[in-house]
Amino acid sequence: MGLVTTKEMFEKSIKEHFAVGAFNVNNMEIVQAILDAAKEENSPVILQASSSAIKYARINYLMKMVEAGLEETDVPVAIHLDHGPDFETCKMCIDAGFTSVMIDGSKYDFDENVALTKKVVDYAHERGVVVEAELGKLAGIEDDVNVASSDAMYTDPDQAKEFVEKTGCDSLAIAIGTSHGAYKFKGDAKLRFDILQKVKEKLPNTPIVLHGASTVIPELVEMCNKYGGNIPGAKGVPDEMLREASKNGVSKINVDTDLRLAMTAEIRKVFAEEPEVFDPRKYLTPARDKIKETVKHKMRDVFLSSGKA
Asked: What predicted TM-score, i.e. pTM, was given to this entire model?
């Protein structure tokens, strides 16, 4: 199966009450782990790359790795630009074969966000590519995203409806309390499901996206720290909250931090327990396996997308 857009997988997710996992990719091992997990779980999946990932891996390498992976799996796979910062980056990805792009105009005021998003939508739709946009601001730091907690802003449901009508975007990322990076909450985790419900009432057929939604899996944090890491107080969105979101109208949930933790934890373990190892295959193989295990858990136990391909 070739690459697909997110249109059909999101339509199914709305009808059948599950979310599609969107997993950030940076290198071959991560691409392999995610696609192997999707195949084994028979789950649709979104591979996404930030502009930082594209700078690191180079867009042609990323696309060729994804194309190679498609030859080994028959589940629906979309390739998506995560947090596209401007029109030029979105255009580059569309022209390179991405099937979905996100334009993140959340740093602008409402009218500027609308204008930028509409420009990307017009270019993308002419080429059969779908567009995700964002309304509201998530706090936290991850790749090119850096928003102070004092500047975070919940999505206004009335504005959300107006925004989608004016831009024609295909899906909408909303802010209900998640945040980027490994330090999402200082106290107890809390998501504004009331805002999600109001947005869904006003936009019943628009797929809703949650960014900054890694669990920051405690076992992986503990494993990193055990083998020399220094990640104190990291806290993410609990699985049960993400499961509730998956059942109640969220179609796409982004995961990046958990994959980084899985890879780093296993590499640190090998370095600590087998200091004589210097063959990258010896530490990247268990790292790839840990990412696959993490992705399978998300699909099966959290997003409820297993068997939905």
From this structure: 0.93
